[in-house]
Each structure stands twice: as C-alpha cells, then as structure tokens.
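thread: overnight batch results

M.L. [08:02]
morning all. the overnight job finished for the chain we discussed friday. pasting input first so we're all looking at the same thing
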Amino acid sequence: MCGYLVPSWEEIFNGTLSISQKIRKKKEDFQVIVAIARGGWIPARIISDLLGITRLISIQVESYKGEERHSINMLDDVTILDDKKINSCW
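M.L. [08:03]
and the structure it wrote out:
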C-alpha cells in the first residue's frame, strides 16, 4: 500500500456534506468556490451543487515532485479573486 490517503466515495461525499453544512451555518453569501486541481475538483463540484453556488474555478498548486516535498508553487493566476469573499472551511 502506498503512503497516500485514498478515501472511499462514501467518505468523500460525507465530507462534502459536512463542509456544506458548516458553510450554511455561517449564513454568508459566497460568490465562488475555488477548487484545488488534482484532488479537490470533485468535492468542490459536489459542494457547489449542494450550496447552489454556480461559479466554480480551479487553481493548481504544486508542493511535491514525485514523493519528495518541495515549497508550494502557485501555477495559476488568482488575481480574479481579488474582489471576492473567500473563506476556508477546514
């Protein structure tokens, strides 16, 4: 077995339900969901459906080369988010 976390579909879906409930409890109006490419897009899409947030964008972040950790490298321009309300929920 590799050293990666491989969640089941049920764990992913239950996690997205939990995150969606936390966001709803905040009673704030979010305009966009930012998905992290290579692992975060599917959960972000489920959350966007559950919350009715239709704007969903993706960014790519690298911090590994193979199995070796390196510094974080932002590969996308996120200036399009400058005027948006963004919240981390985990």
